[in-house]
Amino acid sequence: SYMEDLIRELDPNRPFFEFLTDLLDGWVAYFAEHPRERALHAAATLEVDTDARISVRSVLHRHYLDVLRPLVRDAHARGDLRADSDTGALMSLLLLIFPHLALAPS
User: Fold this and answer.
1) In this structure, how many other beta carbons lie within 10 angstroms of the beta carbon of residue 71?
2) Which domain holds residue 25?
3) pLDDT (0 to 100) of residue 3
4) Which InterPro entries match (predicted)?
5) Which candidate, 60, 78, 71, places its Cα nearest to that of 19?
6) 81 near 20, Cβ under 8 Å?
7) What is the pLDDT of residues 20-42, one digit of tens each?
8) b or e along 86-98 (b: 16 or more beta carbons within 10 Å of the residue's beta carbon)?
9) What total of structural domains would you count in the chain?
10) Radius of gyration over every alpha carbon of the chain, rounded to an integer in angstroms
11) Own/partner pairs, 39-43, CB within 8 angstroms, 24+ separation
């Protein structure tokens, strides 16, 4: 997918917050350049039916976690994050930020 390709292109082994900034910029740029994907993402994440929204978001969040968790784990192991940092809280923040930034170009 686009995100995995972008991650490889940006080199996730460099300092984490430099990498994350570029990844978030690329994420916003992708949705700015792909209005259909942005509309689909909006429909999925803003679904009014609670059961449908929960079902769709759980699939999206699982994918985000599968992609982002190794990046955060590796950054922590490299020392880019403090030893006592709460990586679970960071993952929660990223799960909040990524879907919102996908809609930012609207």
Assistant:
1) 18
2) 2-103
3) 85
4) Tet_transcr_reg_TetR-rel_C_sf
5) 71
6) no
7) 999 999 999 999 999 999 999 99
8) eeeebbeebeeeb
9) 1
10) 14
11) 41/99, 41/102, 41/103, 42/102, 42/103, 42/106
With tokens 């982002």, the residue in question is: 68
Can you read off the two tokens belonging to residue 2? 């686009």
DSSP secondary structure letters along the chain: -HHHHHHHHH-TTS-HHHHHHHHHHHHHHHHHH-HHHHHHHHHHHT-SSHHHHHHHHHHHHHHHHHHHHHHHHHHHHHTSS-TT--HHHHHHHHHHHHHHHHHTT-
Q: What is the C-alpha separation between 97 and 91, in angstroms, rounded?
A: 10
**Which residue is associated with the tokens 């490299």?**
78
pTM of the predicted model as reported, rounded to 2 decimal places: 0.89
Q: How many CB atoms lie within 10 A of CB 36?
A: 7
